[in-house]
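Troubleshooting entry. The earlier prediction with magnesium ion gave an output that would not parse, so I re-checked the input for stray whitespace and re-submitted. Clean input:
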Amino acid sequence: MARIVQKFGGTSVGDIDRIKNVAEKVKAEVARGNEVAVVVSAMAGVTNQLVGYCDSIAPLYEAREYDAVVASGEQVTSGLLAMALQADGVNARSWQGWQIPMRTDDVHGKARILDIDPAELDTRLKRGEVAVVAGFQGVSPQGRIATLGRGGSDTSAVALAAALGADRCDIYTDVDGVYTSDPRIVRSARKLDKITYEEMLEMASLGTKVLQTRSVEMAMKHGVRVQVLSSFEDVPGTLVVDEGEIVEQEVVSGIAYTRDEAKITLVKVADEPGVAAAIFGPLADAAINVDMIVQNVSEDGKSTDMTFTVGRSDLDRAVEVLQQRQDQLGHDYLLPDPNVVKVSVIGVGMRSHAGVAQTMFRTLAENGINIQVISTSEIKISVLIAEQYTELALRALHTAYGLDA
Ligand code: ASP
Ligand code: MG
């Protein structure tokens, strides 16, 4: 007997028939003799609709009331799924975040889970009752409903699995696992049987929208075994696990990309102490995140070019912040470029293998693709290239690292 947390995303509970289909999956898990807690998202499209209501009623709404509104989507699905289970003869009840309670901080709209009291659920799971928990929501120290940020029910599920000491957290979604690259672009992409937490974290933060980034951080911290699998096909998914569980580790596990960044070049800023602080300080004050940075060597010892990336949606604001300070920064002019893509090669194997970066650079060169900015971490190499080369770069790299099916 095992204890399993199952999480079903918006498309999996997108209409009444699908909720009935989910009830079947839960029932099958119970029939295997397992203790089951289920976490549900709102029905597909519902959260967007609720956010839209908030935006149209008052532009400067209070985040506490936003949470009261947007958390309601999950309340509906948890009740409906509990009914479907009961109709199927399964002993089940719904739980809202505050009823468990799932305690969060009071950063409304993107609250963090502080702790979960597992006592009552634990007793009932042991008795064979299925807990159907509304994802995405908890209760703040002030007793108000708080939501965990978009995509937050993944985090609810992983946190619940940790608190309940579950053997596994199954995330049912509309894809059947994690792939070596985006299968819509790279036809030869393969589904991975296993991936490490760290690799998954890199993929999630690069916009592979399979799991919320925070949920992966949480799984890694508490050692929760997570499986990503399809709610529409009955096939094994991808297990997200500790490195030690992966016997034959590939050097590179995947090639990811994101179009969410834009490039800014400041032409001819002074090459002297304090310049980087003068550029990036005001951006940080404006809550604009900077990702990749490259500073050229100065030809004359007096001035240099500074190139960096920001979120594409922050580009206009970043340009404004910097142009307001042109006198102080002293740059000749500024070049914004939204037509870039960041391509990343990810793999924990690169810690112990040389030449991984060289394969990337050589492959791009052979395909006539110019690298604009490079950044690296222990398990990732990222390059910024012109957006028009996205497909070419992904396919060529996928082949170069021997990932093709
Ligand atoms: N319903 C919420 C959203 O759409 C939470 C989730 O689905 O994970 O962001
Ligand atoms: Mg999601």
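This one parsed fine. The domain at 3-174 is CATH 3.40.1160.10 (Carbamate kinase).
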